[in-house]
Description:
Chain A is an alpha+beta fold and 523 residues long. Chain A has helices at 2-24, 30-33, 61-70, 119-132, 165-168, 180-186, 240-249, 260-263, 297-304, 309-316, 346-356, 372-387, 399-406, 427-435, 453-464, 468-485, and strands at 41-46, 75-77, 84-86, 89-95, 100-105, 143-150, 153-158, 201-207, 211-216, 231-236, 254-255, 272-278, 281-287, 321-323, 363-369, 391-397, 415-421, 488-501, 504-505, 521-522. In chain A, strand 8 and strand 9 form a beta hairpin.
Amino acid sequence: MAKLSARHAALGTALVLATSLLAACGSSPASTKSTNPANQALVLLQNYDVTSMDPAIAYDPPSSQVVSLAYGTLLTLKGSSTELAPGLATSWQSSAGGKVWTFSLRKGIHFADGSAFNSQAVKFAFERTIKMNQGPAWMLDVIKSIATPSPDKVVITLKYAYQPFIYSLAQPSGTAIISPAGVKKHGNAWFQNHTDGTGPYQASQWVHGQQVVMVRNPHYWQGWQGDHFNKVILKIVTEPSTQQMLLQTGGADMNIAFPLSNVSQLKNQKGLKVLTEPGLNILYIGLNNKTGPTANQLVRQALSYTLDYQGAVKEIYSGYAQQAKGPLPPALWGYDASLPQYHLDLAKAKQLLTQAGYPHGFPMTITVEENPLYQQVVESWQSTLKQIGITATITTMPWATEYKKISVLKTAPSAFITSWYADFADPDDFLYPQYASNQQGTVGFNLEWYGNPQVDKLLNQARVTPDHQQRITLYQQVQKLLIQQAPAIWVLDQKTAVVERSNVHGYVYNALWPVNAYSMTKN
Amino acid sequence: MLNYVAHRLLWAVPVLLGVLIAVFIGLHVVPGNVAQSIAGAHATAAQIKLLTRQLGLDKPLWVQFWAYLVQILQGNLGVSLQYHNQVTQDIGQAFPITLQLTIAAFIVAGVVGVLAGVLAAAFRNTWLDSVIMVLVLVGISMPIFWTGIMLILALGVDIPLFPFSSVITAGTVLPHITGMPVVDAILSGNWGAAADALRHLVLPAITLATYPVAFITRMTRGAMVEVLSQDYLRTARAKGVREATVVWKHALRNASLPIVTVLGLQVGALLSGAVLTETIFAIPGIGRLMIQAILFRDYPLVQGVVILAASLFVLINLIVDLVYARLDPRIRYS
């Protein structure tokens, strides 16, 4: 045993020595020490892991970030707006009221494997997404056929006229163009962990749960003149405190969706820029429009006057939100700032309830998923409801359980709270699945069981109207009707927190588009 | 001995089967449609139906279980619904990283814990004993999360001695030999990467080891105090044996059975503590993989990780039992 104790002592000493030696070794990797900006790497923090690099599967923000860097799409969005801009297509036009779409493609573009990009590649990529039937496939489900009259022209015929189609192409999920030669060579499964697109950076390493390393694509069509990053590293860090310390110490360069719970601690920190930008989302309380007291429009209007909106914005969301005005967020085209807005007015609510035949209130049920912010909003609502005689029972459950409950009319509660995030920059993406009568229950996302033939007519008309201004008018009419009929209580539009180090330049925020590292630099 | 090992290993089969049935049923009775979560909120009913069929989720539960069991017996844990990879591949990538962290923390916990425990017992009721026992109380009371964040703030941010995220500097490419970055770097002769990987290991290993160190110290002290008052040690001292020899040779060996039991139990605690440690230090180990799999309802991956964890516990218990016999020749297995 004497030997053992000596070994123990030696081990302890060795550990202490090794620790000190290691600590003395210095910390920075060679790449971040480089003085040449072009040799530096951009380190982007991701709140959770990438799940797929395949453009036909990738649907979550970290996966879409990889896909947007590695692949090209026919269209993109202009700057921070929701206005369409050319991508791999230089121009586009619709005919037959939005049933047929013709795209002229950019010439001389190659995939990372060196093969040429052309109309056949577009046809191949879209048909592949539809066939694979994964997350983003629904956006292309409307396609009936794709014709390729020439290498730089592609004609897409839809099953029915659908103007929002063009906007669904200006985002990376499901619509990014993959190399047909690459798929032929490697098979579909290979693309889960590898990329072969026309984008500026291609994946070179993916350690699940840790990082994705992307390197320059030598065939990138915009070339590599000027300052650009050699590498883009997506670092997966789920814990906000760790993210915070990485950003402070330079271990990471930016996060475009920094957890709101920790943002205030980063404000006024030396070496960091914190931007809070409007998001394309809406937090709302859906009301049961078909059964119980909430089926009465007057009751729904009364309930819309019972929420402390400003309290939710300031106290619960720490100011990183703004009160919603109807079902569309202000950052989306079609939003109408002149529409009326509900506010906390219990006297008015009481008056409407009396008018509706519920002068003494009624009992109601509210379901909420396990989200502390949502829970706080409904708890605050519960206390104001009590003041006008409405006894609300809140039940918290996982989203999967809640969805199962609210998507079946028999088990649907009086109210539920949830958020809707944009898939693409068209009001149809917000309004149709949530308020068209054929989208009730599990069919779409009309979990309020709302139905109004007039709204249906306007929504369908907006889908086939080619004129943009006319579409805006139609959507404004829809919003007006919805606010009046109050199928839901639109609570707030949550902002997005972008945190970047002060030496990072060139980032342009777009609620629907991930980081475009190609146009960024660092000094 | 061999008979005993074979007997114990055979017993592991029903244990693992039981665990598997519980997890399989547990995952499938929880509400929520995995096809819906893959296809997204907008997917049409036809798309979801097709996906449900493709995933085999439309078949009766027992048919799904049987198919899964047959698959496992063929060494195939299935394909992750989330990563679309073989589950064995994902676990193969994550497990060595957790193993490396656990081994490092185990070494720290074992060495420091036993040393401190022996010292506290040898100098019991002195100031040294009091200091060690206060530290033990602090160590047992500190939540892993808090310890981790404090260590990062102190030794990662304020005095930037150690990196505090992931297992190696981003962009370092190592050959996959064992999957443990430190070992792979050493085996490939990349000493710079080995030092880098070791530096990444320091803070998580200390964080993970804090609770086990305190626990092992307390148990070691208890066992040693009991043994040190035995008559045979008084005899040894009377014969003029040096106190150091009495403590380290005669007493520690006789106190080692409960210490080994605690060490064995602590491996389990380390594996579960690794889940939190991996979250704080952004380490892509089995704990993080498990959390992500549960959140996504990735049945095959959750099942794979549970089978691995259950097998590990069975194995650790067996090893502890075998070490007993090695330490105390009076113990025999039949």
